[in-house]
Design goal:
382 residues; alpha/beta; Rossmann fold; 2 domains; seven-stranded parallel beta sheet; six-stranded parallel beta sheet; 16 helices; 13 strands; globular
């Protein structure tokens, strides 16, 4: 069995959540391959270096562009994949949106979000149009569709005409070699020394898209400061939408909390570790998530979590977080006060236990089984 995984949707200059997902999944999958199984990674010259060192059983299929040239990447997926993949004898192709001509006997779609339908403002008009036409086509031609939560299952069944039997639920996971409990004081000292962050704080980690609701968090934090006058709000994440980021800074000023908000900006994924360890609470009041991996990363570090009471967030939190209404700043503020106070010790115990239930080894094993299932259904051996 030869499986090709499409990694072209990643931008080498701006690694996405999908980048980290595949790095972890492929690393754990390679040792599970039998002697009759191969992984072929579809890469561009610029992203190949980011996916090296996986060991035997991994080969590469090089396309000209990845997501740093989005339009050309999309064109190459539709025009080149149906020609190039058969030349490598690919049996199963894993991708986000299927080419117009199916490039392999088996096709597995990997849906992580349906923002084109649920949060359309987060996408530019052309990307939104492409996904709104590409997802229905993909749902029709795919042999299996991998989703990461029951919440996403509901969205897929709401927005797409899809056979429910195609859906395979495989949760995401936490890198427990990185995200694990540690000394909060040591982490706080590191942040003081390296980032100039002093005193107690609550934490937000996410790219600054409007649907992530950092504006709602600012309003909630302004209310919570009545009970937490010494706390700061630390915001870690790149300005994905420059206009929205400017609005956030203006809002902090209007609320009178600009001196109590620390804007860290985007940082490498692993550098979020000391922030999780030192924070009194991690607050993630997003309007819509299909999984919400930062929730588990914070829990794995022993940080109390506040998150939204809708979409996939309660499902991911599994009873180990304080839930709040993201539309109501007073609800989020009360949850912050609770998590930093009386609920904190209980959450610091429940969080790591909840996060431990999600491992990349399990994610990789389940994903490989989907490939094997599709290959067998298409007449291949095991």
């Amino acid at each position: 069995m030869r499986v090709a995984i499409n990694l072209l949707t990643d931008d080498p200059d701006k690694p996405s959540g999908a980048h980290w997902f595949w790095k972890q999944t492929i690393t754990e999958m390679v040792p599970l391959l039998s002697e009759h199984e191969e992984l072929h990674l579809v890469v561009s010259p610029r992203i190949r270096a980011e996916h090296s060192g996986y060991g035997p059983g991994v080969r590469y299929i090089t396309f000209p562009w990845s997501n740093e040239r989005r339009a050309l990447r999309t064109l190459s997926e539709h025009a080149y994949a149906p020609v190039r993949l058969p030349r490598s004898g690919i049996d199963v192709f894993n991708t986000l949106i299927a080419p117009m001509v199916k490039p392999a006997p088996g096709l597995v779609a990997h849906f992580k979000t349906l923002h084109a339908f649920t949060s359309p403002a987060a996408l530019n008009p052309l990307v939104r149009l492409y996904r709104r036409t590409g997802y229905p086509h993909t749902a029709k031609v795919a042999d299996a569709i991998v989703i990461n939560s029951e919440s996403l299952r509901q969205e897929v069944e709401t927005y797409l005409d899809v056979d429910p039997a195609k859906l395979r639920l495989i949760p995401e996971a936490v890198d427990h070699t990185v995200f694990r409990p540690g000394d909060p004081q040591e982490a706080a000292e590191r942040l003081r020394r390296e980032r100039g962050i002093e005193g107690p704080f609550v934490l937000f980690v996410s790219s600054l898209w409007a649907y992530k609701n950092c504006d709602g968090l600012l309003r909630a934090f302004a209310l919570a400061r009545r009970d937490l006058p010494d706390h700061r709000l630390v915001v870690v994440g790149s300005a994905a939408d420059a206009g929205y980021a400017a609005e956030l800074h203006a809002l902090a000023t209007a609320l009178g909390i600009e001196d109590h908000v620390v804007w860290v900006g985007g940082i490498p994924h692993h550098e979020t570790l000391p922030f999780y360890r030192a924070a009194d609470a991690f607050v993630y009041p997003s309007h819509n998530e299909t999984f919400g991996l930062p929730i588990l990363e914070a829990m794995a570090c022993g940080c109390p979590v506040v998150t939204s009471d809708r979409s996939a967030m309660p499902e991911t939190a599994g009873g180990a977080a304080v839930l709040a209404d993201p539309e109501d700043p007073a609800s989020v503020a009360a949850a912050i006060v609770s998590a930093t106070g009386e609920a904190g010790p209980r959450l610091r115990e429940l969080g790591p236990a909840r996060a431990a239930q999600f491992t990349w080894a399990a994610t990789a094993k389940a994903t490989l089984e989907v490939y094997r299932e599709v290959h067998a259904a298409r007449g291949g051996g095991r």
